[in-house]
Amino acid sequence: MSNIPADLKYAKSHEWVRVQGDLATVGISDHAQHELTDVVFVELPAKGRQVKAGDACAVVESVKTASDVYSPVSGEVVETNGAVVANPALVNSAPYGEGWFFRVRLSNPGELAGLLDAPAYKALIGAA
Amino acid sequence: MLQRTPLFSLHQSLGARLVEFGGWEMPVQYSSIVGEHLAVRRAAGLFDISHMGEIVVNGPGAADFLNHTLTNDIGKLAVGQGQYSLLCNERGGVVDDLYVYRLKADEFLLIVNASRVAADWDWLQIQVDHAPARDGFRLRDVSEEFGAVAVQGPAVRQFIDAAIPGGSIGGTLAPQVTGLAKNEVATFVFQGTPVQVARTGYTGEDGFEVVAPASVVGAVWDALMVAGRPMGLQPAGLGARDTLRTEMGYPLYGHELDEDTTPIEAGLGHFVALDKGEFVGREVLAAQKERGPQKRCVAFKMTDKSAPPRPGYAICAGPDLAAVGKVVSGTQSPSLGVGIGMGYVPPEFAKPGTAIAIEIRGRRAPAVVVKKPIYQRPA
């Protein structure tokens, strides 16, 4: 069964957001990594890039397919996870931990209210 | 409505992820493509290949008809042997690639691609109509009557004789299944039912393919799993089948091959017997072999860490790295841990060692043309 931590916010496109102050950490959900399986490549946005909520700004590739990752929030990319680029399998083994993608300094914290909470995301993916 | 193989409910019960392939609803993976791929390289994997088509050609005129219709030389095929061959149109374009097994002196079994059964059948009927002098044979599409499994990997020889016990009753005479040599085929009796077993496959590993009546193929799967599981056998899906064949540089119809591409261009000239006499497409293929094709299918490996190459990406080469061709197959190689693929390029860029680049999302990632197979079993 998919792991859906209660303290995170989720996008319909299967990214998660962890908010600490004005910083938002973004990754992909356990459900998403399970659907992809065997992540072999991760491409992250450049540090300093301004992203808008809904922008495709990262790519995650499994053996079979390449999928876009969308930023659930707007702001400046202030940090990216070099460890997941070096070892893409972290997306599979620790999607909410070491497998995070990038960190954004929120320019519009009001957007967070438009994201799903854990029960709503659970309903979206039909998890039991 | 997608077609389902006799093993469909088994795949469901194993939790397989199902995808459309060639009009069939097939397992792409059970647990992980990489895991299933490595199981085949290190131990063994079991594939449902019941979606593939089976066409039987028999009668005293069968060999003559097939030799005129297919590119390889049927004359080199003794009873109990199989060969890879191609079905070409008059332009030398590939209608399908297939395996021909000589089950008896005048009986042949063709194993064809699932997506091409209808196209093959139509083309074969045209050949029958255009060949009034070649008679004394009969074609039957028996695809719905038969299922098939492929059991592949270095450990297979340790357990297949236990799963399908006894000696052969037709084809190559063998005291047990492992008595077959590569490319040999024989009839064995499995739980009272004759089944065809061939030492062939699409993975580059030792292994066997078993063609059995649709009602029996489930029992064949079960017997192989029971005998093989202790040796590391696991179910493997089409995802692993694709990465395994790509590592070997084997073509997949719709990727390396289509009706506008010839076997010479695809690097399959070895399976075109220009010296056997007249056959469909011969004139074009002979001329092309003589003057050299305008494009060639090459295998390549990414040289740096990069995203995996994918079908449709541009292949760039030459001093200014201009786009010169297209990727037709590409993936991350589970065995090598790098991106690999195949694609078509002009002949001047086809030599192994040629530096090329693959255009991935607007960036040119360096790659090198390599000899097939891309992956070689460690000595």
Task: Give a verbal description of the structure.
The complex is a heterodimer of chains A (128) and B (379). Chain A is of the alpha+beta class and 128 residues long. Chain A has one domain (13-111): RNA polymerase II/Efflux pump adaptor protein, barrel-sandwich hybrid domain (OB fold (Dihydrolipoamide Acetyltransferase, E2P), Beta Barrel). Chain A has helices at residues 30-36, 82-86, 90-93, 118-125; strands at 9-10, 15-20, 23-28, 39-43, 50-51, 56-62, 66-70, 75-80, 102-106. In chain A, the strands form 2 sheets. Chain A has a 6-stranded antiparallel beta sheet. Chain A is globular and about 35 Å long. The mean pLDDT of chain A is 95. With 379 residues, chain B is α+β, with helices and mostly antiparallel strands. Chain B has 3 domains: 8-52 and 145-246, Probable tRNA modification gtpase trme, domain 1 (Gyrase A, domain 2, 2-Layer Sandwich); 53-141, Aminomethyltransferase beta-barrel domains (Alpha-Beta Plaits), CATH 3.30.70.1400; 294-374, Aminomethyltransferase beta-barrel domains (Elongation Factor Tu (Ef-tu), domain 3, Beta Barrel), CATH 2.40.30.110. Helix content of chain B is 20%, strand content 33%. Chain B contains 8 helices and 20 strands. In chain B, the strands form 4 sheets. In chain B, strands 10-11-12-13-9-3-14 form a 7-stranded mixed beta sheet, with helices on both faces. In chain B, helix 2 (33-42) crosses helix 7 (238-248). Classes of the chains: A alpha+beta (128), B alpha+beta (379). Chain A binds chain B through residues 37-38, 40-41, 43, 59, 61-64, 66, and chain B through 28-29, 32-35, 239, 243, 306-308, 310, 331-332, 334, 361.
